[in-house]
Specification:
With 368 residues, this protein is mostly beta strands. It contains two helices and 18 strands. A hairpin with a 2-residue loop joins β1 and β2. The longest helix is centred in the N-terminal third of the chain and has 18 residues. The chain is globular.
Length: 368
């Protein structure tokens, strides 16, 4: 991104500060609108993108029921640091709704990824909250060109796997992702985990023709003091996860729609956050990212199911992070993080080393 893009981002931030610094913007009206703009720089590239620009209207006077539309953005994961099924910095145009019935909460949406190829992203998420635990399931699917309108039925409990069987049994232009998740609070510690499936060979005889394309995440949050928060996570994603050439892979605008750590990798993360002031939180963390030789779009063969993950010569990144969150008002929040570290076996070449640095910043604005 050239200098004019950085200038545009700075102007947007200044306008937000001047126009929206008053808490009067954060009212209790049923109509809300949010804007999120993200800047990121890594590997010699800089980007400014609109992550979210959407309006949401509460129904029946309840915060549990609403409809929303605009440039949407969902972060569907119990992970605090890593994500699996859905998480991207690019907003996607779409519509959705949220609701709650018999203690079950849901969120579902439909978004357009590419109008020329009729490429859509659908998603729904259900969760059940109790005093002892949170249980849930989420599912996304990417459709392109050859699909039935039956796939668009807005029924949150109807699995896309079932919809595909009923309406598009033979279509190869549908790619489904499913995950289950759970959170368990234990005093001042919160344990959580999730399991995501793209393709799975359920029977031994299927391992020759189907990839074991899945991922999982385990983590905890510990609050030893009101101002202190400690997070630790481990996540792993198998090769071939997200690869589906008939739908353009699980990608939007060059980014994966989920599991940012990439397939064929495992990720260890820890973060300590401290609230200096009610409006200011700083955090420090460490990252170990072990990346195998398989990359999104590479061809698959059955030997992947027998190899350890990560595979081949492992490229390992050891990194440190420093960041923070500053809430300027009830309507404006700034978030930023700087990461740097050392890469061992860079480019999957044994003995090669390199340095890694990345910067990410975002401004979140409640418009009304």
């Amino acid at each position: 991104m050239r200098r004019n893009s950085l200038l545009a981002f700075a102007v947007l931030v200044l306008c937000a500060v001047q126009a929206l610094s008053s808490p009067a913007w954060a009212g209790s009206e049923p109509l809300h609108a949010d804007l999120v703009v993200t800047f990121r720089a890594h590997d010699g590239m800089q980007q400014v993108m609109v992550t979210k620009l959407a309006a949401e209207y509460e129904l029946f006077g309840s915060p549990h029921w609403s409809i929303y539309a605009g440039l949407l953005n969902h972060r569907w994961s119990v992970g605090e640091l890593a994500t699996l099924v859905l998480d991207t910095d690019h907003g996607y145009p779409g519509v959705g709704n949220r609701g709650e019935l018999f203690g079950i909460e849901w969120d579902q949406f439909a978004a357009v990824l590419d109008l020329s190829t009729r490429r859509l992203l659908l998603g729904h998420r259900l969760q059940y909250v109790t005093e002892r635990a949170i249980f849930g399931v989420s599912e996304t699917t990417v459709l392109q060109e050859d699909y039935s309108l039956g796939m668009l039925l807005p029924i949150p409990i109807l699995s896309y796997q079932i919809s595909q069987f009923l309406f598009n049994q033979w279509s190869q232009q549908i790619d489904n992702f499913s995950n289950i998740f759970m959170e368990i609070p234990l005093g001042d510690v919160n344990l959580y985990g999730e399991f995501m499936v793209d393709h799975l060979a359920a029977y031994p005889w299927d391992r020759l023709r189907l990839p074991q394309a899945y991922g999982y995440l385990l983590g905890f949050v510990w609050n030893p003091a009101p101002q202190l928060r400690v997070v630790g996570e481990y996540s792993k994603v198998n090769p071939y996860t997200g690869t589906h050439s008939e739908t353009g892979h699980y990608v939007y605008k060059g980014d994966l729609l989920g599991f940012r750590q990439q397939p064929d990798s495992e990720l260890y993360q820890v973060q300590v956050a401290y609230k200096l002031k009610p409006e200011l939180t700083i955090n420090l963390g460490g990252v170990v990212h072990r990346k195998g030789e398989w990359y999104l779009g590479d061809p698959w063969d059955s030997s992947y199911n027998e190899q350890p993950v990560p595979s081949g010569v492992i490229q390992t990144t050891y990194g440190l992070t420093v960041g923070g969150t500053y809430q300027m008002s009830e309507a404006v929040v700034f978030v930023g993080e700087l990461q740097g570290g050392r890469i061992v076996n860079a480019g999957h070449q044994e003995g090669q080393a390199d340095w890694h640095a990345a910067l990410k910043a975002a401004v979140q604005i409640s418009l009304f």
